[in-house]
Specification:
It is found in: Endoplasmic reticulum membrane. By secondary structure, this protein is an alpha+beta fold. The chain is built from 39 helices and 25 strands.
Length: about 1250
């Protein structure tokens, strides 16, 4: 598990902002998923029916008695004498809320309008549909009831059975009525919204009210033991929150640490619910609410707090390392994870294992709770190692910023606080190297002491300068594990049945919350509005019967639900309208904002994130400002370091009215430092300045505290210059005739338009822009400086423009006009192979020594060097070697090496891998995989070495005429892939484990060889030693033993048993395009000299076991270096014998080293070294007079040559000869 979480933590701690934002986005998606489930849950369904049902009443003996719908339908369908059926429809008129100041409504006019002007859907008027009381219906009028005028007026209309819906449908179709200047809007009678259809905060209020009502009903119907257990759980949950706050305060955080831990738990819970839903784990809202406190206690906050303690007590959290640099915050978090991560994972694993026992218990209710708790714990573990570590990284950075601010304030106070006698007062910074003992500080005020006594001292976790308290075993982890086990045991043994369905389901069955078929309520006929209408109707029926002396008719009435009509006056008071316009505008804006945000919780997230972002940015900016202030303060006190001024440079355009009238070229722009002293002089910089070679005149002294030019100000000034000519078709360069007169820089907008909308490809569009305009585009970020070659298509122009960009952005601004050459170079061979961000090329003097006879053939010795006497010295050695017949060379080995480092879980497996590689079967398999990557790679041998659990394998292979580093690296990867199949647990630490060894001195290269191993031999006749080298055979042999062998051994040299082999080898490396850094191992050389032929002649050998050269790839593709190789006859790959060209180059290098060694040793033996350097390496013209040290001494003394210290070999040292020369490179 740690192998999975550790890489995730590594990513999150070094990308904390990205991690936090990503988790918030995923949490938002999870919230929407949960919200959708809540809105469509039956738990929050409305307990009230959506609409009223009609009521039915019968008038019997002057009283209205409720009857069923069947009775009314029987009278309607089968009318008989003495029975009469009708329908009543009430229309409730109410004033709009915005029109409460209008006079009370009078429904009489509206009733007349409805009766006369609103026909039914069938076209019949109301008079033909209404109910007419009494026996003589033709003479009576329709029964209509109108209540008293007021803010709400009720109009009651009567209808014959079955005709009400016909007329009411027409009224609803009309929707609006206009009567006497009053607009009436008919309510459409929409059904009640479900929670899924509610918007804004309405659904939140409804859900909360429904939740409270549901649990109030559950509380009334629950058992006492259940209530006690749940109440205890909620108390423990709040105790857990309090412990989290107190523990965070002990770590020095009042708010942010506890908030981060709590947020991590909430986000884990947000992810847990959708995950449980996808895993088909049932989630009952009632059971989940009962189990929530136990879930919180199960997850707990002890493990995040343990990690926070480890981070806060890290020695390098606020204290720099030994080198003075602060350890990255991510590294601090990872080291803390390494300390306590295994313990945290162990606690999580134990708790999840105990919960899995409950999952497998098959006890209803308990099984679901344990499953949810196990998923929540797993998700909390994942969030602890990812999101929470990112939060801790931010907290570490913020604490460091706060520490810098405190140091800044303390330092400023200590600097300004000075005693009367001038001695500085010791400030708070005097103990900045150690943390303050916060726990030992005594609050000064009574409120602080009271606060600390109640909630503890802030930072009390740290004592004695920030050291961690003695580790005490926290009993909460064991207690929590014990409580979980006890909880499971009680439920399994059925002692406590809070969550079991036997309790929950039975409770719900005994006291159902809402029956499955709850009929909608009927219209209340006893309400005053309806009762008064029914009384009036009864009177209209009974009075005619009493007059006529007949039996009263039994009337059965259907009272339909009322229809609501809103009255809106079309002309409102002026004052009221003026007041409502502003309110309507605000309401419209707020409704638009609400629709934009949509969800209240999302809006809270947005506000919270913005607030956190502002706070963090404020802390970081203040910390940066404090750090800059400290740096400036130290500079002022030391008076030895100058810093740039923060103010921007002032750009002034020199204006000349006469020149403007004559329309001359643009005036120069003058830049002056805003804080420059009086000695600073303004520097005039023209807009376009062609390269000018520097003169020998002394440059003016630089201005003190002057700032570099502000390129943004230059751009702004250039955009204000007049543009009088169209863009040239061909590019204008500094080499164009009349460049100084014709160049005109167009505005940035024009350049961008040409760049983006010009002809394609883009290189064609850029050809229409001159260099200054391309520079302007690059300065504004339109063209990246590293992509100039790709965008322009002209490599030399790209190099020239990059030089200008770098020069103008630098402090000295000399590169653009420097003597570094640019022209006439094949940059196509450089791009993508040899160098990046090219600004020119660096020419070196190329000399030729010799020729030298090597294996019977004459070869010139090319040497690129800036050191005098080196080529001349090598030439003298070539002359002496040629006089003896030349140099004979042998190749003893040819193999480039690569030594990867491989880790194994144990030394046993590492030893098994070593044995496999060294076995015939393993070697054959690795050789096949190794050589499958290239037709030139031929594996020669493998050498293994074991250091603990780490295995080092040194592959040696022929690489043809290439130096072979890339070839062998690719082949080594293939061999390691094969080895991984045999040992899957191995981990390749590095492809190069310094066992090769490359670009570092190492005895293994000297012993085993690397690259080409060459031994060269030559015999120099004794007369040549005397005539050309001006010394004797005995002197050379004696000096070689004492200097090259004994002296190097005394110095502990590795492969350095020579005089100056690196001089000659490096010069040839530079001339032939080899890797100069590989001179470290290639220069390993042993020079041996001994008398031969009875002491008459000198036998000299040179042994170089690791010359790393190639004639293919690398710098050999450059034209000058390739030409040198062609001069030697070794350019490219050999056509018939791969590798022969590179081997021949190694033979030439070894022979040249022999020539240089022979000449230098002769000069040392003859004492000519200093005179040769004065003659060849101390040019009087190139050395300025003031820089030559004047050493006082007696005249004439340096003319005399003194012998070396007397020894047993002094008699054989000849006196110095007046003629000849000797040279040595320094």
């Amino acid at each position: 598990m740690r192998a999975i979480l550790r890489p995730l933590s590594t990513h999150t701690v070094f990308s904390p902002i990205e991690t936090i934002v990503s988790v918030f986005v995923l949490g938002t998606l999870a919230y929407f998923h949960i919200l959708s489930g809540i809105k469509h849950s039956s738990f929050f369904a409305s307990s009230q029916p959506p609409a009223l049902r009609p009521a039915y009443a019968r008038l019997t003996n002057g009283e209205w008695v409720a009857v069923t719908k069947h009775d009314w339908v029987e009278v309607w369908k089968h009318p008989g004498p003495g029975y009469e059926a009708l329908e009543l429809q009430q229309l409730v008129f109410s004033l709009d809320e915005k029109s409460q100041s209008v006079a009370p409504l009078d429904a009489t006019a509206v009733a007349q309008h409805l009766v006369s002007s609103v026909p039914a859907l069938s076209g019949k008027p109301y008079s033909s549909l209404c109910h007419v009381p009494g026996s003589n219906a033709s003479e009576a009028s329709c029964f209509i009831g109108v209540s008293e005028p007021g803010s709400t007026t009720t109009l009651t209309l009567s209808f014959k059975p079955g005709t009400r819906e016909d007329w009411l449908g027409a009224l609803r179709r009309e929707q609006t009525l206009l009567v006497d200047g009053v607009k009436y809007v008919v309510d459409a009678g929409k059904r009640q919204e479900s929670i899924g259809e509610m918007k804004s905060t309405k659904w939140v209020a409804y859900a909360l009210s429904a939740l409270v009502l549901r649990f109030w009903e559950l509380t009334k119907k629950a058992d006492s033991l259940d209530i006690l257990v749940v109440l205890t759980g909620y108390i423990l949950m709040h105790v857990t929150f309090a412990r989290l706050f107190l523990a965070s305060r002990a770590l020095g955080s009042n708010f942010w640490l506890s908030t981060g831990i709590f947020s991590s738990a909430i986000i884990s819970f947000l992810f847990t619910l959708p995950l449980c839903r996808s895993l088909d784990i049932p989630l009952d809202p009632i059971a989940l609410t009962e189990a929530l406190p136990f879930l919180v206690c199960t997850v707990g906050f002890d493990k995040p707090l343990r990690l926070a303690r480890a981070v806060m007590s890290h020695p390098h959290m606020l204290k720099p390392q030994e080198d003075g640099r602060m350890k990255p915050a991510g590294a601090v978090i990872l080291e803390a994870l390494d300390r306590v991560g295994n313990v945290i994972l162990r606690d999580y694993a134990l708790e999840i294992a105990v919960l899995f026992v409950g999952v497998n218990s098959r006890v209803g209710g308990l099984k679901e709770f344990c499953a949810v708790a196990a998923v929540a714990l797993a998700m909390d573990c994942f969030m602890t190692f990812t999101w929470y570590t990112a939060v801790l990284t931010i907290m570490v950075e913020v604490r460091r910023v706060k520490k810098v601010r405190e140091m800044s304030r303390s330092r400023s106070a200590s600097i300004t606080a000075v005693k009367a006698n001038g001695a500085p007062v010791r400030g708070a910074l005097s103990r900045s190297n150690s943390k303050q003992n916060i726990a030992a500080e005594v609050p000064k005020s009574m409120p602080q002491r009271a606060t600390n006594s109640v909630i503890g001292v802030k930072g009390s976790f740290f004592k004695d300068g920030g050291k961690m308290q003695e580790a005490e075993e926290n009993p909460m982890a064991r207690l929590k594990l014990l409580l979980i086990a006890s909880f499971l045991t009680l439920h399994i043994l059925n002692f406590c049945t809070t969550l079991t369905p036997a309790t929950t389901n039975a409770r719900h069955l005994r006291h159902p919350l809402r029956p499955e078929a709850v009929p909608a309520p009927r219209v209340d006929i006893t309400s005053p509005a309806i009762a008064s209408v029914l009384s009036t109707l009864a009177a209209t029926v009974s009075i005619p019967a009493a007059v006529e002396g007949t039996e009263p008719v039994e009337v059965i009435v259907k009272v339909a639900p009322p229809v609501y009509i809103h009255a809106i006056p079309t002309v409102a008071p002026t004052v009221h309208a003026a007041n409502t316009n502003t309110g309507e505008a605000i309401e419209k804006f707020m409704s638009s904002w609400s629709s934009l945000v949509g969800d209240p919780v999302i809006s809270k997230w947005i506000v919270a994130l913005l607030a956190i972002s502002v706070v963090l940015n404020g802390y970081l900016l203040k910390g940066i400002a404090a750090g800059s202030g400290l740096a400036a303060m130290r500079a002022v006190r030391s008076q030895g370091v100058r810093f740039r001024s923060r103010a921007r440079s002032v750009v002034q355009i020199a204006e000349d009215p006469e020149e403007e009238k004559e329309e001359h070229g643009p005036a120069p722009i003058v830049f002056m430092a805003s804080a420059a002293p009086a000695v600073a002089h303004p520097v005039a910089v023209p807009v376009v300045e062609p390269p000018v070679a520097p003169t020998s005149a002394p440059a003016p002294p630089p201005a003190v505290l002057s700032r570099p030019l502000n390129l943004e100000s230059i751009d702004q000034a250039l955009t204000r210059l007049p543009i009088r000519s169209p863009a040239p078709v061909e590019p204008i360069t500094p080499e164009t005739p009349g460049y100084e007169r014709e160049v005109e820089v167009r505005s940035l907008a024009e350049c961008v338009d040409i760049f983006e909308n010009g002809p394609r490809p883009v290189s064609v569009a850029l050809k229409t822009l001159n260099d200054e305009e391309v520079i302007l585009l690059s300065q504004t970020g339109k063209i990246a400086p590293y992509a100039l070659e790709k965008m322009l298509g002209d490599l030399e122009r790209a190099v020239r423009i990059r030089r200008a960009l770098i020069s103008r952005a630098s402090r000295t601004k000399t590169l653009e006009t420097s003597l570094i050459p640019v022209k006439d170079y094949d940059y196509s061979r450089v791009m993508g192979a040899c160098c990046e961000n090219v600004i020119g090329y660096m020419p070196l003097p190329l000399g030729v020594a010799g020729p030298l006879k090597i294996d019977g053939l004459m070869y010139p010795i090319p040497m690129a060097t800036a050191e005098g006497t080196l080529v001349a010295s090598t030439s003298r050695g070539c002359k002496a070697l040629n006089a003896g017949g030349g140099v004979t060379t042998v190749l003893t080995a040819d193999g480039m090496t690569r030594g990867p480092a491989i880790d194994f879980p144990s030394i046993v497996r590492a030893a098994e891998a070593k044995a496999f590689i060294e076995s015939e079967e393993g070697y054959a398999a690795i050789k096949e995989a190794f050589e499958s990557t290239s037709r030139f790679a031929r594996l020669q041998k493998i050498k293994c070495a074991l250091a603990g659990r780490t295995l080092f394998v040194r592959f040696a292979t022929r690489t043809g005429d290439a130096m072979g580093m890339n070839m062998i690296s690719k082949a080594t990867e293939a061999a390691l892939d094969l080895l991984t199949k045999e040992f899957p647990e191995m981990v390749v630490l590095a492809l190069s484990g310094n066992y090769c060894t490359d670009k570092k001195p190492a005895a293994i290269n000297w012993i085993e060889g690397r690259g080409k191993s060459i031994v060269a031999e030559a015999v120099i006749p004794g007369k040549v030693v005397k005539s050309v080298l001006k010394t004797t055979v005995e002197s050379l042999a004696n000096l070689n033993v004492k200097k090259n062998l004994i002296g190097s051994a005394m110095a502990g040299s590795v492969g350095g048993f020579n005089a100056h082999a690196a001089n000659i080898l490096t010069a040839i490396f530079l001339a032939t395009g080899q890797d100069p850094a590989q001179n470290v191992e290639s220069s390993n050389c042993m020079t041996l000299m001994e008398p031969t032929n009875n002491g008459e002649d000198l036998l000299m050998t040179v042994t170089m076991p690791c010359i790393e050269v190639g004639t293919v790839g690398g710098g050999t593709i450059l034209s000058p270096q390739q030409a040198v190789l062609q001069m030697l006859g070794v350019a490219g790959a050999h056509p018939t014998n791969p590798g022969q060209n590179a081997q021949q180059l190694a033979r030439i290098i070894a022979s040249a080293v022999m020539a240089g060694e022979l000449s230098l040793m002769s000069a040392l033996a003859a004492g000519h070294l200093v005179r040769a350097h004065l003659a060849h390496n101390r040019s009087q013209l190139n050395t300025p007079m003031p820089s030559r040290p004047q050493t006082p001494g007696l005249e004439g003394v340096d003319r005399q040559q003194f012998p070396i210290t007397p020894s047993s070999s002094d008699e054989r040292v000849p006196p110095p000869q007046p003629a000849g020369y000797a040279v040595e490179a320094k």
